[in-house]
Methionine aminopeptidase 1 (Akanthomyces lecanii RCEF 1005), 101 residues
Amino acid sequence: MLNGDILSLDISIHQGVYLADLKGTYYVGDKAKAAPENLRLIEMMRQCLKAAMKIVRPGLPIREFGEVIKKMATARGCSVVSTWCGHGINTNSHPTPWIPH
């Protein structure tokens, strides 16, 4: 990797029959943080995630998480990638519930 790159790291682990994964986006070196477009996009994604997590509660329809993210991203001149989803943790790779974002 080079100074200025952005790393998207997706880690999957197994414990017994369960599989979980977690993804994070990171700056590689100071040069990556110096590019305004990098900062804008990554920080906006983090803000969208925080906003969606604030509404988490039992019984909330899953679509509401994606709507919070979509509304916030759209207001900032971005769009969401509708072919990728958040998902549950189970014995499968990407189990339901799927959370469009």
